[in-house]
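Example 9 (inverse folding). The structure is encoded as follows.
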């Protein structure tokens, strides 16, 4: 995977990699995943080997690597989770969430120090524990285990990522590598979706989400992770230290991911990325160095999309793509949210317990699609406390940023995480990781420390 080696800090400063070698390494990394995608799609054995190898590297990283490098491994697992699911890797369905939780906590505890934001992360997950006593599951222990695993694995991963991110400082170089680590496996997803789409005709499209264009997997999850890759690539274009080759590759990733996300006909992924990018733009406009680049990019991409990409994609689908995105139907999510709120008002203090919504629904049985209404319905007042803990972490992280570019990144990441959780709950580990990444300190911002505090040698790298 595209992560830096774990060499001493002095070595990084004495022998910086040549820019051309960086661009070539990233190109080979992306090309390798593009070539790996069809093989994983055709052979679940290859997908399983890839998953196990990645998890072994993650375990090693948690025990030995610096926190910045561990974040790169976690980013890779985040991008690979949907890839493993869609290629049938023989691993536990929620392996991405639990693996990231274990890796994050293990790596963070090696330093043995805590901050206020880390205590907020602990508080967030602890507030969700008391409701476990309400889980019924028909007195079937396996059913109870599944309910708890499905509904609390996401919050556990979010707390763990926020716990790790809150004590990690990322230099611009590490953020670059982290972005690359995330988009690599997502590019494999885009390639699988692209190959599937090339074999389709206009008759294969309707105005509903399209499993075939999503590579034969859930369009919602595929669209969302592709949207995250597009947002990550977009933010990378405003990195003043990135070489032109890196930005050019990221621009290609952004366009391909956005196109394939749109062709799944699952609107959430593209809307989520666009919403987060728009909020980031409000801060980028405040930076003289980013303002011209942003306006130029918006003009070029706007013209390219309106004059070239969208007309051809719409013609390919015989107008169904426009029809899909012109529709404002929430596809029953509004009914589920209203039902969640009704259940909460009937059980305002304790809630009904994780996974117990199905037994109290008056609409067609379905899992919650909004994490926020689910927290209220399942956890009652403690769910409100958990939401306030998330908002407190957001406020603290945004307050610590000083430059417009860094604040744009932090706000965009928090926005993407919250938007994702608002329409698809925590189906994947992506919102958990993105939230934790937003909690990480940027080396360009001053770090506030308590008077008399001493920084541990090697705890955080600014190289």
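The amino acid assigned to each position is listed next.
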């Amino acid at each position: 995977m595209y992560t830096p080696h774990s060499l001493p800090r002095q070595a990084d400063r004495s022998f910086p990699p040549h820019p051309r070698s960086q661009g070539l390494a990233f190109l080979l990394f992306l090309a390798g995943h593009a070539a790996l995608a069809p093989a994983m799609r055709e052979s679940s054995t290859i997908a399983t080997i890839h998953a196990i190898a990645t998890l072994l590297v993650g375990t090693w990283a948690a025990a030995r690597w610096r926190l910045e490098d561990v974040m790169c491994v976690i980013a890779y697992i985040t991008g690979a989770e949907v890839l493993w699911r869609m290629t049938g890797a023989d691993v536990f369905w929620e392996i991405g969430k639990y693996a990231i939780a274990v890796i994050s906590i293990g790596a963070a505890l090696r330093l043995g120090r805590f901050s206020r934001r880390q205590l907020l992360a602990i508080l967030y997950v602890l507030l969700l524990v008391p409701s476990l006593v309400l889980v019924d599951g028909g007195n079937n222990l396996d059913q109870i285990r599944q309910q708890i695993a499905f509904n609390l694995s996401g919050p556990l991963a979010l707390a763990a990522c926020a716990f790790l991110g809150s004590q990690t400082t990322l230099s611009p170089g590490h953020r670059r590598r982290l972005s690359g680590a995330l988009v690599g496996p997502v590019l494999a997803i885009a390639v699988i979706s692209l190959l599937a789409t090339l074999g389709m005709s206009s008759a294969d499209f309707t105005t509903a989400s399209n499993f075939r264009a999503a590579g034969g997997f859930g369009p919602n999850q595929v669209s969302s992770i592709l949207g995250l890759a597009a947002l990550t690539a977009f933010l990378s274009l405003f990195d003043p230290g990135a070489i032109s080759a890196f930005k050019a590759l990221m621009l290609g990733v952004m366009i391909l991911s956005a196109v394939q996300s749109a062709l799944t006909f699952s609107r959430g992924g593209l809307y989520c990325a666009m919403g987060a990018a728009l909020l980031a733009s409000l801060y980028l406009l405040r930076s003289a160095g980013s303002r011209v680049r942003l306006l130029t990019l918006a003009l070029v991409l706007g013209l390219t999309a309106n004059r070239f990409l969208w007309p051809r994609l719409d013609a390919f689908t015989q107008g169904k793509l426009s029809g899909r995105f012109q529709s404002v139907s929430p596809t029953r999510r509004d009914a589920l949210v209203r039902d969640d709120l009704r259940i909460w008002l009937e059980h305002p203090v304790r809630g009904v317990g994780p996974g117990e919504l199905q037994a109290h629904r008056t609409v067609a049985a379905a899992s919650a699609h909004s994490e926020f209404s689910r927290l209220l319905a399942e956890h009652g007042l403690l769910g409100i406390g958990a939401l306030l803990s998330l908002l407190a972490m957001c406020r603290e992280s945004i307050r610590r940023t000083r430059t417009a570019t860094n604040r744009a990144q932090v706000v965009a990441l928090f926005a993407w995480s919250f938007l994702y959780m608002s329409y698809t709950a925590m189906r994947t580990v992506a919102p958990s990781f993105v939230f934790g990444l937003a909690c990480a300190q940027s080396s360009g911002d001053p770090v506030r420390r308590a008077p008399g505090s001493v920084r541990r040698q090697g705890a955080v790298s600014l190289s």
